[in-house]
TrEMBL record:
Pfam families listed in its UniProt record: MFS_1 (PF07690)
Topological category with respect to the lipid bilayer: Multi-pass membrane protein
CDD domains the UniProt entry points to: MFS (cd06174)
Record's subcellular location: Cell membrane
Gene3D superfamilies associated with the record: MFS general substrate transporter like domains
Keyword field contains Oxidoreductase: no
Keywords: Membrane, Transmembrane, Transmembrane helix, Transport
Residue intervals passing through the bilayer: 12-29, 49-67, 79-97, 109-129, 141-163, 169-189, 217-237, 257-277, 284-303, 309-328, 340-367, 373-394
GO CC field: plasma membrane
Family: Belongs to the major facilitator superfamily.
Species this protein is from: Gordonibacter massiliensis
UniProt-listed SUPFAM superfamilies: MFS general substrate transporter
Protein name: MFS transporter
Length: 409
């Protein structure tokens, strides 16, 4: 008889893992609603302040090439602990930062944690739910960890700021929450160390760049980068834009409107999931998502009326968050073998991080140099068109495989 697993209740452990992801995201997304206060405190412009989020993308890109090897040494639970430690350091170093350079360094540390967490979550799900048929629901829920944390922070920032009196107070609160999360992770998440190490070391190291060996995989990575650029500009800059005299919202209203994108993004992800199960030509669905994502990019900062801004926030959430599920679904057509599909999936986050790195700095620099927020539509439109062209090429190359497989079913 096989030895019984020493890992604890799957769903109880998963709920705790999801909560830890949300706690991390609360700290990760504390910067966008605080952007105005941070710029005033560090006496920097929008271009330099854009690196408050882009530094996280740089770190995520760097660590993406090492997370596989690190996980084979410390296991997925250790990666979760490392992620929370990074976020604790992000908050501590950031609140004590004497200058903008040190503050940006604190965000780089937080970005490393984001890379650890992105790897740890799916691995822990595979460990907890050993039957692959039972992983669909927890994986779908896990995909919302960033949305959950972002919603909480955007809607509680003004309250915390009012209670503590400064952005530094928000950072101290985030640090306290993360410390509680660390305690819960170490003592309450029950994962047998021998089991987790056996799972992550059995298949050997998987290098993310191994998925970048074909044109098809490169096309998907570029599309992901274009999506990330468009989405990152909105998530980093929207709260600041909404508080400008052009729009005239106060801090609480700006953060609430910005959070609409997160809610509609969850809805968009669910809708596209249904579409992908109904449409045989999944590469065609990817093309459609990039058309809508490009539209979302162009309209971000064109309108100034508050009612229209709310409509824009709804559409940006719906039109951008449909891209990642379509990309993940199409990864199977970018490779010839199941192992190759896994490599493509591992490579996709590289595109996401590279797209996020220049997003806010470029948008901020354009606003500073031209004095016009509407001009940001130019790079957003160009990037969207690049992603659309790549999706069209991918459809031309791989659409026949998708439709052929659908006919065989």
């Amino acid at each position: 008889m096989a030895e019984k697993s020493k890992t604890g209740n799957a769903w109880l452990n998963f709920v705790l893992v999801f909560v830890m992801g949300a706690i991390f995201a609360i700290g990760f997304f504390k910067v966008p609603p605080a952007m105005g206060s941070l710029m005033e405190y560090f006496q920097c412009g929008l271009g330099e302040a854009g690196w408050f989020m882009s530094a996280c993308s740089v770190a995520g890109t760097v660590i993406a090439f090492a997370t596989g090897a690190i996980q084979t040494k410390i296991g997925p639970k250790g990666m979760l602990v490392a992620a929370l430690v990074c976020m604790a350091l992000d908050s501590l170093v950031g609140v004590l930062a004497p200058n903008v350079e040190v503050f940006i360094a604190s965000r780089f540390i937080g970005g490393l944690g984001n890379g650890f967490l992105a790897t740890a979550g799916p691995t822990l799900i595979a460990l907890l739910f050993k039957d692959p048929a039972k992983r669909g629901l927890p994986n779908s829920i896990w995909a919302c960890w960033t949305a959950a944390g972002s919603l909480i922070m955007l809607n509680s920032y003004a309250l915390i700021l009012g209670a503590t009196g400064s952005w530094q107070g928000v950072w101290w609160v985030c640090l306290a929450i993360v410390v509680v999360g660390l305690f819960l992770t170490v003592f309450c998440i029950r994962v047998d160390h021998a089991e987790e190490m056996e799972m992550v070391t059995a298949g050997g190291d998987v290098k993310p760049w191994a998925g970048l060996t074909s044109l098809n995989s490169w096309l998907l990575v570029i599309v992901f980068a274009c999506f990330a650029f468009i989405f990152s500009v909105w998530s980093a800059m929207a709260p600041t834009y909404l508080q400008t005299p052009l729009v005239g919202m106060d801090m609480a209203a700006a953060n609430s409107v910005s959070s609409i994108t997160t809610v509609t993004g969850i809805v968009g992800s669910l809708i596209i999931g249904v579409v992908l199960t109904k449409v045989k030509n999944q590469p065609l669905v990817l093309v459609g998502t990039m058309v809508l994502c490009t539209v979302a990019g162009v309209i971000q900062f064109v309108f100034t009326g508050q009612a229209m801004i709310i409509v824009v926030a709804v559409l940006v959430g719906l039109f951008t968050n449909i891209v990642p599920p379509a990309l993940f679904s199409n990864a199977q057509w970018a490779a010839k073998t199941p192992a190759g599909v896994a490599l493509v999936m591992a490579a996709l986050p590289i595109g996401s991080n590279f797209g996020g790195i220049p997003a806010a700095p470029i948008a901020g620099a354009i606003v500073e140099s031209t004095g016009s927020w509407a001009m940001v539509a130019v790079p957003l439109g160009i990037v969207g068109v690049i992603g659309l062209v790549c999706s069209l090429v991918f459809m031309a190359r791989c659409g026949k495989y998708a439709t052929g497989a659908a006919r065989e079913q």
